[in-house]
Amino acid sequence: MKAASGGLFVLASLLFLAVHARPATGADHVTGADRNPAAARPAIAADHPLTLDDAIQLALRKNEDLVIERESLAAARAAVTRANGAYDPLLQIDGTWSKTSEPFNSAVSGTAPDQLGPEQKTGEGGAALQQLLPTGGSLSLRARGSRETTEDPLALLSPAYRTRVGAELRQPLLRDRGTDAARLSVRVANADRQGATATLNRAVTETVAAVERAYWTLVASRQEVDVREEAVRLAEEQLGETRARMETGAAPKTEIAQPRAELERRRGELFASDEALARAENALKLLILGGVADPLWTQHIAPVEEAQLEVVPVDVSASLNRALANRPEITIASAVVNRRHAETAFARDGVWPSLDAVVSYDRFGLAGSANPGGSVGTLPSNLDGRFDKSFESLGRGDFNAVRAGLVLGLPILNRAARGNAAVARHVERQAEASVDKTRKTIQAEVLDAAAALETAGQRIEAAKTGREAAEVQLSAERDRYETGLSTNFLVLTRQNDLSRARLDEISALTDYRMARTEMARATGSLIEDRGIDVGGKAR
């Protein structure tokens, strides 16, 4: 009774399709698309084979995001060099010449009665070397020499040669002792470089993961097209068999409506798969190609790798430990914490009053010739000479000066420094909390990736079993159809079941590949697993 009801339902369906189908003049009336099913869709020209490694290398060389991050890292490294430049010695050299005639309000100016002051000419030069110390102090070395001539009869020497060498050390004892602006700049630059390196690492990881996902999506899209083409071919065969039965009178003319409708439906699915394939191909090109002039934009990509692989178990505990040790996001967040630590130390140091210890020592030399217009008697022998004599005096240490002292700067209230220190502490705590949040997020990502990988692995065997069962069912149904025990409806249904089973298997394999990629990304091991250095170049 149930079999009869099913037969009536099938017959009614066929009659409905026959009534609404386009009228035919006879059993042999078919469209051009029936005779040539590929004529209505563009051919798939896959003329550029591409491996996954090749795709990754192209992306690492040409992807704009990586170019941006590499430039950011280069800028961060240059910033470190710039910050360390504060400790470069500074050499200053100067030279001056002057002519002076200052009036004296005195009766003993030493000049003629019509003059108010003697004329003095001076040529002077010097050099100073300054060095910032890692302790926050500074050391300066200085040397000067001059030649003076004067009309003052009270002067002992004219010309007179003066020399001087000395050193001064200034060391902060309170503010700027723990850290100062120079050390802050170095620590901040190093933290930024650490963060930029990790950011590039993350960009490389994300790029490789995106390329792998796009590559396997393209592989799956091509396989889907193959499945759709096979489904069209099977529908054409079924249509041919039905037409042959109609010609022999074994089947009514209305019988051709169902396989023809199914053929057109499958062609529509094939066209949709062609579009999905083109989109998948363009998505991969967007990741791996450079400028718009690259010739590969106008070529078809033929991936040469298959998604077949061995399912391996997941060690969740080891994956979590690896992720917490390797993920660049943690390094980026830690770099921010290091920067905040430096800023907090500098702000806290700024609350102290300034107290600097200053120590200096200078030696002086003097030599020259007796002033011809002077009133001084015999010139001492140790002063008679030129510059060389002055240097002798300098070397003997006949004249020197020693200075030691403390310089205290005590700001009243100091509210600005205290406010800066409080702000820095709060910002530092925010950065530390961000690290904890990043660790939790990464842990959740690893657990999600592990669950997805395990599920995808289980789906592969189930999909394979389902596809094998669908193949057996279709074969059995076709055998029954050939003996007259089945119908077009049941054969086409089994064909559709097989297509879905094949697509499910493709999806399971592709999902497992992508889950493997996501697991490697989540654990931070993708770069290492693919043999890529931090600069983003494949080895």
TrEMBL record:
Q: What is this protein called?
A: TolC family protein
Gene3D superfamilies associated with the record? Outer membrane efflux proteins (OEP)
SUPFAM superfamilies reported for this sequence: Outer membrane efflux proteins (OEP) (SSF56954)
Gene Ontology, cellular component aspect: cell outer membrane; efflux pump complex
To which protein family does this belong?
Answer: Belongs to the outer membrane factor (OMF) (TC 1.B.17) family.
Q: Species name for this entry?
A: Eiseniibacteriota bacterium
What superkingdom heads the lineage?
Answer: Bacteria
User: What Pfam family does this protein match (any one)?
Assistant: OEP
Q: What is its main location?
A: membrane
* Ranges for region Disordered: 104-124
The cross-references to PANTHER family, in alphabetical order and at most eight, read: OUTER MEMBRANE PROTEIN TOLC (PTHR30026:SF20)
> Which GO MF terms does the UniProt record name?
efflux transmembrane transporter activity; porin activity
Q: What does the UniProt entry say about where the protein is found?
A: Cell outer membrane
**Signal peptide region:** 1-26
